[in-house]
Amino acid sequence: MQKRVLLTFTAAAAVAGLLGLGAANAQDTVKISVVGPRTGVMASGAAVTHWPGFKLWAHEINARGGLKLKAGQKKVELIEYDDRSMPGETIKAVERLAAQDKVDFIMPVYGTGYNLAVAPIFAKYGYPQVTQAAVTDQIDALTKRYPTLFFVQGSTTSFATSAINVLKNLKDEGKIGNRVAVVNVADAFGIELANAGRPLFKQAGFEIVYDKSYPLGTQDYAPVIKAAKAANPDAFVAWSYPPDTFGLLEQAKIEGLNVKAYYSAVAVAFPAFLGKYGKAAENVLGAGGIQDSPAIRDYYKRHKEVTGVDADYWGSPIYYSFLQVLQQAFEGVGSMDRKAITAYLKKNKFKTIIGEIDIRNQRLDKYWTVGQWQDGFFHAVAGVGFSEYKPVKLKTGW
Amino acid sequence: MTGGEKRNLIISVLVFLVAALLPLVNNGYWLSIGVSVAMYTVLATSWTLFSGPTNYIALSTAAFFGIGMYIVAAFLDWAPYPVLVLIAGIVGALFAAVIGLATLRIAGVYFVIFTLGLAELVRQIVAWMQHVMGTSSGLYVLISMTDPILYWLLLGLSAIVFLVGWWIGRSRLGFALRIIGNDEVVAEHSGISTARAKVVLFIISSAFASLTGALVAPRWSYVEPTIAFSPFLSFQVVIMALLGGVHRLWGPLLGVIPFTLLWELISANFPAQTTLLLGVAFLLIVYFIPHGVIGLIEDMIRHRHGMLGSVVSTLQRWKSGNA
Amino acid sequence: MDIIIIGLLLGGTYALMAMGLQLQYGVARIMNLANGEILVCGAFGAIWFFTASKMSPIYALIFVVPIAFVVNWAIYQVMMLPLVKRAKNQGQLEVDSILATFGLSFIFIGILLAVFGGEFLTYSYLATPFLIFGEPYALNRIAAFLGSVALCAGLYVWLHWTRAGLTLRAIAVNPAAAGLVSINVPRASALAFALGGAVTAAGGVLLSMFLTFDASLGVIFTLKALVIVIMGGVSDVRGAILAAFILGLTETAVATLVDPGLTLAAAYVLFIAILLVRPEGLFGRRST
Asked: Is the fold of A28-155+294-366 the same as that of A156-291+369-384?
């Protein structure tokens, strides 16, 4: 009996002891911390995009001997913390890392709201925050307020605009009619996209024949798809989130919603999407997309080899590209001096797997917004700032 | 006011003054913990105002917290922030009044799940309205709210909660509530308007949750339904309060502080297994501190054996119950 | 017609989520907040089985159900029984079991994360249209519905026609009195708890055919199940089944006739309205 109590207390003491230790051999490595959701509503997306990206990057740097800094080559030590999808926890974790643990670098967190919640802390301690997973229409106001904040995913409106432009081009070429059915998930990003999209559809000369939201966590999409089908649309657009992207498409297949253009926002770019639907995924449009190149193909191969999971076709390569950017900034500065790194990001251009990158203006002005599954690859068919995109194909049945 | 009460009051004021110095001492990590502690102190203590004496477990904290957040987010373009905070409190109170009156007949586990369903309902309606009204407003709260200011505001709010709680304890209302908690039927027979007492308390308790939401909104900057109405918040508040002890005004505080620190310790030291260990820590607490931290302390005082001894005696009781 | 069929299919889905919890709460009096995680475990088991063997995920029931039964039985014996024994009254047990199973749900999530990772897990099985009155419906949903009906019927028959079932019903009505007539309440409660867990896990297997899962998703199922069980009245499995179908039909009707954005809102309005009219749920009895 007493033994068990003692054991409990020994364990507690060990836990307490760990608090003080840990900072021992900080000399030969660079400590880089990652905060993000392992559990909670954001966890499944982060498991595809957030965590594996850092893992691959750190693995590759260490495999070639470490970061080349002025003080010699230093290996990267990644420490990952779970914020449980709660902004309060994200705030505490980042503050602890910056103020208490004084880590060499803190990576951006996962999700728009979470990144905004910790932006003041990054700014206070001068860590550059290159948000790979934040999409907002407030880029101007936010970058002005936080000089350390960078956006590389574009604005919400640009996502809606591009998707609608893709449809408009098809319409203008006479390939589809002007009837569009629009649904959206009643949660932050879905609401923002739907509200941004509504006037744009009208400007583009579309008739919105169905326009409804559905709640996050809906378990049956039959009523939505049936009603959308009954409205007899030429194109179907869903401003959707991960679980519903799957549910909607499954139902569309069953109902035989044979539109010539099928767009669903988040998660079409996920490898699980292709895995689940195979041939049916062909020509489905979605948010994200990547321009095919040998460098990209090689990246996907390495990602699978090192992390054991497939990278997605939206966030993953962007994560990796901006980790390449940071790496060049670290090595360009030659130390982990946060202020110098921020300044370096604002002065230089960088070479990455997705081409040359310029975030001197605290934002990326070239990015892809719409992708389409063609032959097992989610090609970019629209975007902002590029001159050429893969031509869009029409969806021909399931 | 008796001598004892005067002494308690002086101690409380001193504690608050010392707590208020935190931002001057540390403006970083410990302040962020302080913000968290202050927030949960308001929520858990105000939760206890209603649920402690009545034994009605309400899982509606997130509903009112979310309402507070959304009022700030939705109307920031039309009214100054301090006014919105007040409005948030008032709307929370009005909403609680309606709910309180409607739910008088519901008790026990039915009440628990009812309040949980309520939070979900509010979240659904808010999300749907955002779609129908067709604006992106109600998402961003881009006004400056630094950690020290938020901390002081929350600390001030918790002082108000304690004052209200102290006042209720002295008033007829508090007396009525204690009788309801012991036996609702007896209370009714002794001419106590159980309905009125319960509703008033529910209103007070809920209004504080809305105020907290309104205060925290600028710090979180981005308000989305899943975050604002997270059922997890409701559970965490209940758990902290129960862990501390709900039969004393300062009981929840004794839950909030160790709980926040323990969870912080786990998240900081076991990044890979945070959730699993939180669960384990949680179970240990439930099994070995059955009457809350207050129970543990009172046990210690009564039996004059140290903390280890109390845990041992709890263990023995548990073991003998198991055999 | 469409509304009725889709509503019934959805109701069957909901019944799968809620029946197990009903048994656990109705008989064993444990408000199991880890219910959704057990369901996710069942679903992950089926997904793992399907991906590994390419055989029908329904075969996964063969190993998922017994494992879930044993695990839940052990959970009851090791974790819940001490709480039952130390609780002075029903209220105390409710609080303790809510706290303990809340912690338990974290442990489950932690284990699922460690074993399966945090990604979405999903697969395609029977995702083909099946025509009823000329309208297409998803075959996997129909299969799950049939499974749900079979489970409901099986449970009902077992509860009403066997001695063990009678025992369980007696405890559901009045545990103290059941003890007096020489029913072994702890044993029967353990049985009910284990059986409830097994039913929930079986539900997970069936639902995995058309829902997408990740390790953190359990709470959604827990919430739904809680609402259904409470709406039906905690002491009668028929209440939960009825409530599940009412919810399914209501949600579908609202989605089709009013606005899909209000489906869940309508479900909660209905839940609240029913409690306001019948504070002890549809099949509840007022205890005094």
From this structure: yes
C186, part of any domain: yes
Interface A–B counts its CB contacts (< 8 A) at 141
The answer to whether A154 touches A231, Cβ cutoff 8 Å, is no
Give me the residue spans of the domains in chain B.
3-254
Q: Tell me if C287 is assigned to some domain.
A: no
Of A81, A84, A141, the CB nearest to B142: A141
How big is the A-C interface in CB pairs under 8 Å?
122
Q: What is the pTM of this model?
A: 0.88
How far apart (Å, rounded) are the C-alpha atoms in residues A74 and A57?
Answer: 14
- The token pair at A195 is 């509200």
Q: Is residue C239 part of a domain?
A: no
Statement: residue B174 has pLDDT above 80? no
Using the Cβ of C226 and the Cβ atoms of chain B, whether some distance falls under 8 Å is answered with yes
- Decide if pLDDT at B276 tops 80: yes
Q: Nearest-CA residue of chain B relative to A82?
A: B271
Number of domains in chain C: 1
Summarised one tens digit per residue, pLDDT across range B13-58 is: 888 888 888 888 887 889 999 999 999 999 999 999 998 888 888 9
How far is the C-alpha of A316 from the C-alpha of A290, rounded, in Å? 10
Any chain A CB within 8 A of the CB of B220? yes
**d(C-alpha C211, C-alpha A247), whole Å:** 7
Between chains, do A213 and C214 touch, taking CB under 8 Å as contact?
Answer: no
For chain B, report the end-to-end CA distance as a whole number of angstroms: 50
For the cut 60, the answer to whether the pLDDT of residue A273 exceeds it is: yes
| B118/C227 Cβ within 8 A | no
- pLDDT tens figures, B225-243: 888 898 889 988 998 898 8
Listed in sequence order, the DSSP H helices in chain A are: 2-20, 43-63, 87-95, 112-125, 139-145, 156-172, 188-203, 222-230, 242-255, 271-277, 294-307, 315-333, 338-345
Give the integer Cα–Cα distance in Å for C218 and A216.
Answer: 14
Is A5's Cβ below 8 Å from some Cβ in B? yes
ipTM here: 0.86
Q: Is C133 on the interface with A (CB under 8 A)?
A: no
- Give the contacts of B38 (CB within 8 A, at least 6 positions apart): B151, B154, B155, B157, B158
C117 reaches A (C-beta below 8 A): yes
Per-residue pLDDT of B241-268, as tens digits, reads: 988 888 888 889 999 999 899 888 888 8
Q: 3-state DSSP call for residue B158?
A: helix
The verdict on residue C242 lying in a domain is no
Q: At residue B319, does pLDDT exceed 60?
A: no
Which two structure tokens, joined as six digits, stand for C211? Answer: 């829902």
- In CATH, the number for domain A156-291+369-384 is 3.40.50.2300
CA neighbor of B30 nearest in space, from B261, B262, B316, B283: B261
The answer regarding whether domain A28-155+294-366 maps to CATH 3.40.50.2300 reads yes
Q: Which of residues 137-176 of C touch B (CB under 8 A)?
A: none
Kindly list the domain boundaries of chain A, sorted by start residue: 28-155+294-366, 156-291+369-384
Is residue A226 within 8 angstroms of chain C, CB to CB? yes
Residue pair A384/A154 in contact (Cβ under 8 Å)? The answer is yes
Q: What confidence tens digit (pLDDT) does each residue in C181-235 have? A: 778 888 889 999 999 999 999 999 999 998 888 888 898 899 899 999 999 988 8
For A44, which of C120, C211, C260 is closest by C-beta distance? Answer: C120
Domain containing C58 equals: 2-215
Classify burial at A25, counting beta carbons within 10 Å of its beta carbon; exposed 0-12, middle 13-18, buried 19 or more.
Answer: exposed
| Three-state DSSP state, A324 | helix
Contact yes or no for B172/B148 (Cβ under 8 A): no
A65: left (phi over 0), alpha (psi -120 to 50) or beta: left
**Would you place residue B298 in the very low, low, confident or very high pLDDT band (cuts 50, 70, 90)?**
confident
Architecture of the domain defined by B3-254: Orthogonal Bundle (1.10)
Residues A340 and A363: their CA atoms lie apart, in Å, by 18
